[in-house]
Queue: 2 jobs
Job 1
Amino acid sequence: MSLRSILIHPDPRLKKACDPVPDLDDELRRLADDMLETMYDAPGVGLAAPQVGVNRRLIVLDCVREEEGPPRPLIMFNPEVIAASDERSTHEEGCLSIPEQYAEVERPAEVTVRWMDRGGAEREESFAGLWATCVQHEIDHLNGVLFIDYLTPLKRQLITRKMQKLKRERARG
Ligand code: NI
């Protein structure tokens, strides 16, 4: 496994809708494993393929907090929200492509997601709490949507300018 570098907003690759994964192969499984390693290393609770520059419908997540128990890494190919609760909840969100910026986002409190797992089997599960927020945030990435797209234009511009500055500083080294 190896670490992949994470794209920083603004980047056109983060704004594109991703293509479905037709059939699993070793390359896609390796990508998923690399993404999990990259996510844990960051550290983060979720990562989507476009964030490492791959235009495919693939996300990884693990929202188990260290004190809560053993890790629960999930790899989801072609994840789809098939049901969402009317009840909504607000959580503070961040993103590995938008480092150190956080904002509250309102989303459905519970969602049911269908996906294909690492072995190619179809899975379905309902998520609540942090898991619900995270899985919706990651699926948004596959549609070119970032959490800052839910904020006011003013807040979004402010964060985007900070990220442009961060990228200039990193480029200079
Ligand atoms: Ni994100």
Job 2
Amino acid sequence: MVQPANIAFIRTAKENCRVCYTCVRECPAKAIRIAEGQAQIIAERCISCGNCVRVCSQGAKQVIHGIDPVRELLAGPEPVAACLAPSFPAEFSEWEYETFLGMVRALGFDYLIEVAFGADLVARRYAELLASPDRSRSYISTACPAIVSYVAKYHPQLVDRLAPIVSPMVAAARVVRHRYGPQVKQVFIGPCIAKKSEALHAPVDLELDAVLTFAELARMFDESGLDPAAVAPADFDPPRAGLGALFPISRGLLQAADIAEDLMVGDVVATDGRTNFVEAIKEFESGALDARLLEVLACNGCIMGAGMTTDLPLFRRRSQVSRYVRRRMRQFDRAAWQRDMDCFGELDLGARFHPDDQRVPVPFAEEITYIMAKMGKRNPEDELNCGACGYDTCREHAVAIFKGLAESEMCLPHTIDQLRRTVEKLAASNEQLADTREALMQSEKLASMGQLAAGIAHEVNNPLGVVLMYAHLLLDEIEQHSPIREDLHMIAEQADRCKKIVAGLLHFARQNKVQLQPTDVTALVDRVLQVAAAPLNVTVQAQNELTDRIAEIDPDQIVQVLNNLIHNAFSAMPDGGTLHLRTYGDTAQVRIDVTDTGVGIAKENLGKLFEPFFTTKDIGQGTGLGLSVTYGIIKMHRGDIQVHTNADPAAGPTGSTFTVILPRRQSPRPVEANRRDIGYDQIETKDTRTDYQS
Ligand code: ADP
Ligand code: MG
């Protein structure tokens, strides 16, 4: 053998792959990479053991079939030999072996060859190797091509410890060539996918023309429509095998071939199967394995090969093979067998193997630590080593990520954690969305309210203009020291304010604009209270806690806000009570609490308070516009309004506090928005506040 050809004989059926990582976990060569949402085979790392094919419950790992070249050979002029691996009774258990062979011949094969005879020859070479006087050398058997490939790729320094003997398949091919001539085309038919790869390697490529798995042979039977009842029974062509036929169910070639016991004891360690072989080769390398020959197979015996279709359990397969061998042994012609063995005693069965190093340098500790940290594994207790990713430990997984073989998403706990976070984020943004929607609805209501307000304002504007004009006329005419001068002044001032409010409403309806100016908030509150005309049974209190009393606000609009709140408070206290105004704040904000000891607001009404036209007052008493105008003004200031209330006397004193929150300064962007934009401004308000606070 030379450098193995890097052809993957297994493909991933993308549509079937559910990315369950089972193949990753079961691949002894770690030759499967998760990429683009599927498990892909890395040809140069693959040892064609077929474990992935066997373990994939979705049928996503498929052997690339090679039936067509065989059909071509059968159709061609040269005779074709079918070299049958001795495990065939395990696959084709429904027929007597003569029927099975008759079927093979009916496909067009000219010779039926027992690879088991190759096993007999090879076993003898192993016995000779072990009998050599140089007992210092120990070997790994080379009957299993997946093992040879594994050693070449992942333990290349052990290549010269591979027993320098061809496999039974190659031995049988050489026998055929010898006996039936070089013109005979040879097709190996067996349970093994790795044989396909072995047959491509020089010099084996010169000896074998094609390799079929039993699965492919079964398919050919199906496609040819052969009737087993109608085919003529057939038997193998010579040379006939001896106990080599037991090889697929034995603990190794030597045992199958009945090599002397004394040679076996202590000298040969036989093992098979995915986990065992990896461990055994590791131990062999470390020197821990004290044996002259490590007989090792990648599958649990060739009868469990991945190129089979049967779902018979292991022991049924074994009994099928041994039943066949017992039948064969009854007609066993030992003398003829011995003659054939002697005849091929000089046949060259030597083999040489070459390293095909596929090891990837192990990353530095820091690199592993970094990769682990990205998967949330910062402390030893974070390393669950749960194996869900397909790797035995978190560290092995991290190494595989480093090598580009794995992805961090393969870590189940990590992915679940990520998922949880994403769900949380989504939920949060959903909430935000709900807020936005609510704000938008509010802005639409404000818009319709604006239209109505515009209508009213337009009507009110003219009579108001007359009031204002006459008040000013009277002021001009009245004597300087007249006692009613003060009253007239009040009329003019209030009418003036009304006009501004009306104008403001008109603005609000078309294009909202607040005219900010540095304003003494405490003085503004005092002025509002002065003209508030509190009912006699209501006590009014004002409390100022501001040291810096100045804020950039539109004073007329904030007066309107306070008036609305104060008059609502009065209405809530028909039997009297206390109105308390408190001004306070910090460097970023000014807050005004308007508190009453009134009836409070029922819970079911809280959500509707700021809706235009929501009122609990009698017709003619309330318009339901006060709070929605208030809300609009505050939002244009990029402020906020909050309500605390209790309407249940059983829960404590009733009453309400409306808190107006206004930023002291506005951000550089002009506070200007047409009414459709109010909703967006409301959203930004929160950000602005946060900015100020931080
Ligand atoms: P209006 O005052 O015309 O009813 P508002 O928008 O000013 O319209 O108020 C809407 C409703 O909110 C009022 O009808 C009332 O039910 C409730 N409300 C407002 N302020 C208070 C308060 N301080 N105490 C109790 N209820 C209030
Ligand atoms: Mg009101």
